[in-house]
Amino acid sequence: MNDKSIKPGPEGQTKSSNTASMVLILCSLAALVLSQMIRSSLEPELRLVPLLVLPVGLILLFIGMLSMDKGHLPGWFTRFLYIESNWLGVNLAQFLSLKFSFIFGILACVAAGYFYQMRNPAGAIICWLLSIALVLYGGWKKPETTKLISKTTWISMATILAGSFALRAFKTATIPIVLSGDEASSGLFSLKFLTGEVNNLFITGWFSFPSLYNFLQSLSLRIFGQTTQALRLFAAFGGALTVLLVYLVGKVMYGTLAGWAGAIFLTGMHFHNHFSRIGLNNIWDGFFFILVLGSAWVGWKHKSRLAWLLAGVGIGLAQYFYAT
């Protein structure tokens, strides 16, 4: 491999080792604190899971502190890390971040549980966000060249987003005129987040759909009140974001004209407008489809690590919105 971050010289090795030591210390401390915070909220039969994190975290914390003191990681530990980090094309700190993301993912699952009330809400959400952040850091690679988005493109994006959202959010209280039973049922479940009956973002809720969408929908209900318009605004926003993504993906793949043509077509497409105007999660499926498809294409065509990361995160987050 030609990546200097993977096979550094003496100075680079010291810097890489210090960064890896810092990741070890910070992530081990976070795992120790969060695992014990979560443990107190668990049923006795589940307390073994965070308890197992304790010895692992203490050992890794000790290695990290010893490494910071000596200025380098132990030889046996470094050799083990280099084998897999070279294979993945990341440095030592990133490889450790990927491993720790797995630990925080398990802790998030245990802390959340499978019922309407999370066992430990703060612990579950913090561990979930940490796990995602560590994966992004672990997979990140600074591009050799950075292309800045032009002012014209920014103006085009703002125009498309504003225009498509205005068309979808206009008179959502009366168009469509009928509030369907599915919309109403989904909205009633979203209200449970406001009343405190439900706080688990990671389970299946109404009609076996992921509950995170209902939580986000509940924010609109909290801000704008318990109205049909508030119920449908989040879907309108999802539809508008999809139009914006169609423009960007079309522009990258086939040029500016194709991007504009796709965005204009989708902006006025009656079928897409209809689903952007009902308070259900269906419309977000198109958003994630375009996000993952476009990111995968850019990643493959331009060898962009950031694009592949976006594709992966898109697939992961899509599971929290719609079943397909």
Structure write-up:
The protein is an all-alpha fold and 324 residues long. The chain folds into two domains: 10-139; 151-318, no CATH class. It is 73% helix and 0% strand. The chain contains 13 helices and no strands. Helix 6 packs antiparallel against helix 9, helix 7 packs across helix 8 and helix 9 (228-254) runs antiparallel to helix 10. The radius of gyration is 23 Å and the shape is flat. The model is unreliable at 1-12 (pLDDT under 50).
Characteristics of this structure?
about 75% helix; 2 domains; flat; about 325 residues; mainly alpha; disordered N terminus
Layout of secondary structure:
Layout: H1 10-39, H2 48-70, H3 75-88, H4 92-112, H5 121-139, H6 151-169, H7 181-195, H8 211-224, H9 228-254, H10 256-268, H11 270-275, H12 283-302, H13 305-318
Number of helices: 13
Mean pLDDT across residues: 91
- Report the principal-axis shape: flat
The beta-strand count equals 0
Q: Write the H/E string, N to C.
A: HHHHHHHHHHHHH
What percent of residues adopt helix (DSSP H or I)?
A: over 70%
Question: How many separate domains?
Answer: 2
- How is the biggest beta sheet arranged? none
Strand content: under 5%
Q: Tell me the radius of gyration.
A: 23 Å
Low-confidence stretches: 1-12
Estimated structural class: mainly alpha
N- and C-termini, Cα separation? 38 Å
